[in-house]
């Protein structure tokens, strides 16, 4: 249980920052019996630095006034200080603790890069959707009586809504653009996600031995001058970047192409199987001058990529 | 061309220099020299039920520990400066070695079908063909 922003920071620090983890409230008793609405939103989708955080918040359909009292409104219009205040109230005030539950999943930058660089690539949309789905399930499994779900989306809402409706046939599901400015429960989810991301960046510890705080690497958005400077300056010739960076972002990819040692992985097609090197058209017209001269190697060696070579050449 | 390998480490007391940690990564890195393995790679190696995972340049890796075939050892040698003339004698220095290493695949559990494992078959076969 987390009772203050300081405790939230301390909790984040106990988790390793290259894997995903969950931070959550207790389920309020009333949410186990009363029908509840649940909001889903994310923070930190675009930045090249730091985790993406998915947040959900839920409360009884009959108790939405609590959300208004907390000040849950369009979270983008709230200042960082306002958001911190609202989460503090959610962590401490009786009326909120008794009615509003929440869960956040911190999705590490390393997990994001790894997903996007798998043999069969996972898009950020898939990562996002999977997180949203698992959080809704988690709330229900921990005892919350969910009946309505409101989801903020960046992409087209129709497909996403159909998919969620298929997974959760018993819930009334609404997927909408800018849902956090329309539905206070989504706004609450958004605040949980945003504040968690901000604090995850504040307590980020580099295993790479960098002594640098978030005031030096900035917001993480590629347009932020401090973030730009970080991406330009903090390059390791072999390993590229510290794990704070999402390697799969084009900002990072392009900079490494330019400034770090070239690295080539095996090429794969979209399904994830190894590409055979394409034979060039001209090779079909070329006379095979080696005919009869070179001894053909047994396929044992070809299959094992064994050749006779001299490393001292 | 002749090659001379100097071993200045012959009398080094500690064994550590010949038992260094080594990683075989599934990627061609166009760089030859020291690397910050202990800071940028090893902190992120996780072990679960004997399966290793790690990450290189954002790519997910699956790994396993491998030992060198019996009777073999790995030696790292360096050349301070390559002579300009093609036929000049070349001098190498022994810089260290390793006894085992971690083999990494890109997003694929290591298995006996991996090229390196299969390539090592040759050691037994060649011994059967060419050995005493």
What does this structure look like?
Chain B: One of its GO terms (cellular component) is ribonuclease H2 complex. Chain B: InterPro entries: RNase_H2_subunit_C, RNase_H2_suC. The complex is a heterodimer of chains A (313) and B (132). Chain A has helices spanning 5-14, 29-33, 65-70, 80-92, 94-97, 109-116, 124-141, 157-167, 179-182, 184-202, 214-217, 225-233, 250-259, 299-303, and strands spanning 21-24, 36-43, 52-60, 101-107, 146-153, 172-177, 263-265. With 313 residues, chain A is α/β, with parallel strands linked by helices. A 6-stranded mixed sheet of chain A has the order 1-4-3-2-5-6, with helices on both faces. Chain A starts with a helix and ends in a 10-residue tail after the last helix. The model of chain A has no long low-confidence stretch (mean pLDDT 91). The two termini of chain B are 30 Å apart. In chain B, a hairpin with a 2-residue loop joins β5 (51-56) and β6. Chain B has a 5-stranded mixed sheet with strand order 2-9-6-5-4, with no helix packed on it. Chain B has a 3-stranded mixed sheet with strand order 1-8-7, with no helix packed on it. Chain B is mainly beta and 132 residues long. Helix content of chain B is 14%, strand content 36%. Chains A and B meet through α6, β7 and α14 of A and β3 and α2 of B. β7 of chain A pairs antiparallel with β3 of chain B, so a sheet runs across the interface.
